[in-house]
Amino acid sequence: MSIATASRVLNGSTHPVSEKTRLRVLDAAAQLGYKPSLLAQALVKGRAPIVGLIIADIADPYFSQIARGVESVARRLGYLTIVSTAQRSARAELEHVQAMSPYHVTGLVFAASGRVDDSDTHMLQAAIKDLQNSGTRVVKLAHRQLDVPTVLFDNQAAAYDITDYVVSLGHQRIALVDGPADSYTSIERRQGFEQAMRAAGLEPYMRLDGGFEYESGLESAHHIVSAGTLPDAVIAVNDNVAIGVLMGLRQAGVDVPGMVSVAGIDDTPPSRYVALTTVSTPLYELGIAGAQAVLSDLARARDGQTLLPHRLTPRSTTARHPSVRR
Amino acid sequence: MSIATASRVLNGSTHPVSEKTRLRVLDAAAQLGYKPSLLAQALVKGRAPIVGLIIADIADPYFSQIARGVESVARRLGYLTIVSTAQRSARAELEHVQAMSPYHVTGLVFAASGRVDDSDTHMLQAAIKDLQNSGTRVVKLAHRQLDVPTVLFDNQAAAYDITDYVVSLGHQRIALVDGPADSYTSIERRQGFEQAMRAAGLEPYMRLDGGFEYESGLESAHHIVSAGTLPDAVIAVNDNVAIGVLMGLRQAGVDVPGMVSVAGIDDTPPSRYVALTTVSTPLYELGIAGAQAVLSDLARARDGQTLLPHRLTPRSTTARHPSVRR
DNA sequence: TTGTAGGCGTTATCAT
DNA sequence: ATGATAACGCCTACAA
Which residue of A86, A102, A244, A264 lies most exposed, with the fewest beta carbons within 10 A? Predict the structure, then answer.
């Protein structure tokens, strides 16, 4: 038989093939341990069973969880996952897009939130547009200036909820340890914080800028203890930072939650190790949904926006304010 | 000019090309935003600028750190990184190898240690042999029954060192919370523990089996507190487990390190969050070295074995035994 | 039902 | 110095 016939039976072609030859082919293929070249297939079909994932830092639990979600559905659906890290830089992201683009990846997932006014964003957008036109499905997992379908959770509401909870504990002098000033995620969480404070008739006690990492929290803790009167509570932009604050405070001899309450956002695994009060954010689910959005045929709304739920997760780094009777 | 000429200038061919045409081609390429198809290139050259990474669980800091190392050098060298998770199952690893194989990946890195007597290992070995014959460089980052070059650190020595340290603190009733009984890593660490105990003339106080995860440690802690006399110290197979033990003990009202000392191995980021005494293991460096081994032309010894150093990192979950005067 | 042949985008061999 | 052209491995009209 010809290679054409073989090809027809090996991939589920609708083209009719007699049962005898079909079996003959199948058998031969099995004997020879035949493996079709995905490269050749991708070349001719203009599509490779690969999904690209662009994150900021694979060692950050936030992204690890997302990656786990993406990889798990990709694997289940028979796709390979290419992951690249870009430290929230649109420039780096663009490079990765260009690196993956020639492979005709089936789907591309942007997990990191962008920077406001990142001057390379428009070039990235252009590259993405090209990809989409060539058939690649693209999705983002956080707010940012990219015109693609989105799967996310409500950062502002999450921050509002944790702040509201801390307020309900009777605290009044509440500090915010913020993330990068130009990060959408950071901005949204700050807004949620401020909104909740406003709703409670409270004024932010102090606000510190920083990054999304543990070290940033550690440093902020030092500022806090050396800035005069301690706050009643401090809310951090995420768990990494909250844990840094927690450690820094305790190192300085400050009892948590005895003297100061500390809370974070995300509920990444380490937060359980320190019994951190936080809000559980659907990171793994974000990865799942994101991968499905680009791989599943039951396509999500073309440029819809899916919102996943979060929930408050009180633990032991927060306590009722001493002045409050229960 | 012909596409042949164009091809010659676009890739660094040694074939002579006149300077005028070279410029003409370069210019045209720039105008058209020409991007060579890596697919076609890979198809004809039988090699794609991709490195495959097979780990057990991307959410485990142990592997996250390794992945970070691999991805960083891959990116720097212009390679894409495909990561797949296989929960230490040779069967799953084999599937991933088969999935990547048709892409003619340049290098393949096995990060997880294998299971002793994993019946699928020989099939995996066969698949690997095929890959190698087709030019793919393969390396493993832990001991296991795979005949490929290796980059690793000394698990047994690491376990010996931490045990020796705990002994030096004056503890005698020392418990080991072990990992999976059939994991090479687990076995080596146990041997290091036992060797150090023997050297100190001590008998292991108790030994619990489990997994490599936090939950396993948490569970073991419950067994420990409900088993009669508390040990002086407990050493865990890794940080995840050690932290679980730590939390479980404290939840049960046991003071650490006041009543019991706890130590782990690996020094993954979370261990700093709880000030865990541990031994720093070169995870990130393992990723770096592994990627270099398969991508760098200054090839490592064909099937050599590179040993990376570790170092003891005492922190605050261990203390001198009360009976010991200093 | 089965076979033929063109083409996907590049590289490399062989002429010219 | 430059240009055809086969080949990489597979898919898919189009013929037979």
Answer: A102
